């Protein structure tokens, strides 16, 4: 009987988990993508962020995460599938990369979706 209850609980929990909206899923992935959150280096909206200032051989330098909210999808995709100096490698799936891209461009997507379809 206990086993059945546990099974039921697991089911309920996994169903409850799938009841999050696309917005929530996308926001969750951006902040917690199986590793360090993107926002910590690229800013809340992907606008870029200064991480540290340091001196190297007497020269003032900065370590910053670039803006990633203006890239075309192709560049975003290719960059995330390559090695980037100073950034953890995440090995994201294509769907995850699309979701992150959606997150950074969600207002544009929503705006486009609210426009009436053009008829020729
Ligand atoms: C530890 C800090 C750090 C984290 C966390 C991080 N990045 Fe980066 N990212 C960087 C740095 C540093 C660069 C290289 C910037 C440069 O070339 O000047 C970079 C570059 C990029 C680029 C390429 C930008 C360009 O125009 O060349 C993309 C796209 C990107 N990051 C996306 C992400 C995403 C999505 C996440 C979360 C899954 C993430 N990053 C997490 C530090 C980070």
Sequence-ordered SSE layout with sheet pairings:
Elements: H1 2-18, H2 22-31, H3 38-42, E1 49-56, E2 59-65, H4 73-80, H5 94-104, H6 106-114
Antiparallel strand pairs: 1-2
Bound molecules: heme C.
Heme C binds at residues 33, 36, 38, 40-42, 65-66, 68, 71, 76, 79-80, 84, 86-88, 90, 100.
GO molecular function: electron transfer activity; heme binding
Protein name: Cytochrome c domain-containing protein
Organism: Sulfuricurvum kujiense (strain ATCC BAA-921 / DSM 16994 / JCM 11577 / YK-1)
> What class, by secondary structure content?
alpha+beta
Task: Count the beta strands.
Answer: 2
Instruction: Give the termini separation.
Output: 63 Å
Bound molecules: heme C
> Helical residue percent?
40-55%
Report on the architecture of this protein.
This protein has 120 residues and is an alpha+beta fold. It has one domain. Helices cover 50% and strands 12% of the residues. It contains six helices and two strands; from the N terminus they run H-H-H-E-E-H-H-H. The protein has helices spanning 2-18, 22-31, 38-42, 73-80, 94-104, 106-114; strands at 49-56, 59-65. Helix 2 (22-31) packs across helix 5 (94-104) and helix 4 crosses helix 5 (94-104). The radius of gyration is 20 Å and the shape is extended. The protein binds heme C (HEC). Heme C is lined by residues 33, 36, 38, 40-42, 65-66, 68, 71, 76, 79-80, 84, 86-88, 90, 100.
